Structures are given as C-alpha cells and as structure tokens.
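Try this one yourself first.
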C-alpha cells in the first residue's frame, strides 16, 4: 500500500522521504539513488566548488535518474559568503524545480525560486522561523528537531514537541526531520501530522553514499551517545560525531574566557571534514552526524532502505490499529 501524503502529491514521488542536503555527501550518485528508490534526492549546492560545477552535477544526476530531485542551498554565517545567487541561477537555468533552503535570511533566495515557479522546502528549527518562511511563500517546511545532525538551532526543542507545535500552528505541509532512521520514527512523524520525513544521517550509511566504507562502519558501530554539540558558546550549535577533534573543540570552548572562532578555526576546517569521508579516519576532522546513529545497524541500498521503511510503516500503523479497542454502543 503506498503512503500518500501532500508531499508525495506535490513532488510526484512514491515515498514521502527526502534526503536532506549534506555537505560532501549530497552528490549525484546518492541523489539519483534516492530518487530512483522513490524518495526525493537533493544535491548539496555548496559541495560543488562553483555554480558551473553545480550545473555539471545537475546534468550528471539527470543522466542517472528520470525522477524528480532537488537542490539544497544552505546560507551559512560567513565572512566571505559563497556566490549563493550564482548557484541558484545555475540550478534554475538547468531546469531544477525543487529547492531545499536552509540557514539565515533566506528571503531573497525564496523569492527568486518562487518567481521562477519552483517548489521550495525550507528547513527550520523553530515555529517562529517556520511562520516567517510561510509568509515568504514556501511550499513545505522541514522541521529539524534537537536530534538532528548539523545545526539544531539554540532552543533545544526535541522533535516530539516541535512537530506537535507545527501541527497546531502551520497550515502548509511539513516534514519531520532529525532523529528519523527507521519505520517507527517515520510512522510517529506521520502521527504527528507530518507529510513525510527528511533524513540525513540514515542516508550517509547506504551503499550509494559516497563516503568511505570505514565511516559507514563507524556509524553502524555507534550508539546514540556518540554525537556532541560544538559551537554552543558561539551560538551556532552543530551536532557532530564525537571524536578526538570535536572533544578538543569543546575543551577549548569551555576554557575560562571562552573561545573565539579563530581559536578553533583549524580544527573545524571543512577541508579536514571532507578528508574524513575520503580517507576513512573518523578522528581526522569534524563531521556531521545525528543521534540517529544509534538506530543504524546496516548499510542497505537506497532501494532496500525505502522499501523496508515503507513496509515497516504499514506494519507499525497496523499494529497501532490493533491497540485501539472500539467500545460497543
Ligand atoms: C553529513 C551531513 C551533512 C549535512 N550538511 C548539511 C548542509 O550542508 N545543509 C543543510 O541544510 N543540512 C545539512 N545537514 C542536515 C540534514 O540535511 C538533515 O537536516 C539532518 O541530517 C536531519 O537529521 P538526521 O541526521 O537525524 O536525519 C547535514 C547532515 C549530515 C548528516
């Protein structure tokens, strides 16, 4: 039985599962595998060195799938911001119709995509930001709870309450994001009113994910206690894998007087994080991971993963039905 929600209808996909943008991970091979499996794969624009390279990544993805896929643009706090407008234009000109936006002050980007007839999924971590994004005209919200990999915001609200609040407040479809890696989480998200789920960490650990096999095995061996928050004291919290480098960053942040970004810049460099995925050493740099690592025990293909999730959701919902005893009138 297919799971039909406003998301599957809007995006014309079979399973209401989105693979969220992932720096160094959201590349054509994985994106196409997710879309071919019936979900929505999303290319991470900033993983490409420039807008021209993004055009090539879009063309490559299109050569691997005829199904819908999207492009993520993440607005980062940065002294020298990337050419966001250039990436956006390249993707629109290449015919991409679905965008995932994330980060601060997305107004200009969202207006640009909407004026070009695109569908926008905006990722946020508070109901306040979700409502602002609705005013800007986004079609879908992706609500990232405290559990998520990457940036959970500074308010520490777990998915259970955040999604129930979304159900109370939002009139547009929303996705549950953060901590979802199995059918129970997926079914619970639907129960909380979500039109689907967004997953990051789970997709890192699939056959088609481009990261080193040793990092996938590290995720399989990890528990839900194997992530930490860095950048807390800089008010730009990020959930990353607990390793020598992230523990060192926290130590520096906690020393008397705190830390400035310059004090940790080398430790947290994106290039070091990229090399983790290339050389397979989990202690080489900082890499994003959510507490869903504790739920991940295998490395399936995206097709196997989505089929298992679909079937699992049906079972979980069926079993819940049996819990409800209808009283006789
Ligand atoms: C390795 C990795 C890199 C990520 N990079 C980005 C990114 O560049 N932009 C973004 O919006 N979200 C990024 N995220 C967050 C995901 O898109 C998604 O919101 C998050 O992983 C959901 O939580 P989960 O990992 O518990 O499923 C990243 C997540 C991971 C695991």
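Now uncover the answer:
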């Amino acid at each position: 039985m297919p799971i039909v929600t406003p998301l599957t209808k809007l995006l014309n996909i079979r399973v209401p599962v989105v693979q969220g943008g992932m720096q160094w991970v959201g590349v054509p091979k994985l994106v196409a595998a997710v879309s071919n499996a019936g979900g929505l794969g999303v290319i991470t624009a900033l993983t490409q060195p420039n807008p021209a390279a993004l055009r090539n990544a879009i063309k490559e993805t299109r050569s691997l799938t005829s199904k819908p896929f999207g492009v993520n643009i993440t607005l980062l706090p940065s002294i020298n911001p990337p050419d966001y407008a250039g990436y956006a234009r390249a993707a629109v000109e290449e015919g991409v119709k679905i965008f995932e936006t994330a980060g601060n002050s997305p107004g200009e980007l969202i207006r640009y995509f909407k004026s070009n007839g695109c569908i926008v999924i905006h990722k946020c971590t508070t109901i306040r930001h979700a409502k602002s994004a609705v005013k800007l005209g986004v079609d879908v919200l992706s609500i990232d709870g405290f559990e998520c990999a990457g940036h959970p915001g500074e308010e520490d609200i777990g998915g259970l309450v955040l999604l129930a609040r979304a159900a109370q407040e939002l009139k547009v479809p929303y996705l549950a994001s953060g901590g979802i890696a199995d059918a129970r989480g997926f079914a619970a998200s639907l129960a909380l009113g979500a039109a689907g789920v967004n997953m990051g960490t789970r997709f890192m650990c699939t056959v088609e994910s481009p990261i080193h096999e040793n990092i996938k095995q590290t995720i399989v061996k990890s528990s839900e206690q194997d992530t930490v928050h860095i950048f807390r004291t800089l008010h730009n919290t990020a959930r990353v894998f607990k390793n020598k480098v992230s523990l060192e960053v926290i130590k520096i942040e906690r020393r008397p007087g705190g830390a400035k970004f310059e004090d940790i810049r080398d430790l947290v460099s994106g290039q070091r994080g990229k090399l983790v995925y290339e050389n397979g050493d989990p202690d080489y740099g900082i890499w994003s991971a959510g507490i869903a690592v504790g739920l991940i025990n295998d490395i399936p293909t995206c097709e196997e993963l989505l089929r298992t999730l679909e079937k699992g959701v049906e079972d979980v919902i069926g079993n819940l039905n049996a819990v409800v005893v209808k009283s006789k009138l």
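Discussion: Strands lie at 17-19, 41-44, 69-75, 98-103, 119-124, 140-144, 174-177, 196-199, 227-230, 238-241. DSSP finds 14 helices and ten strands in the chain.
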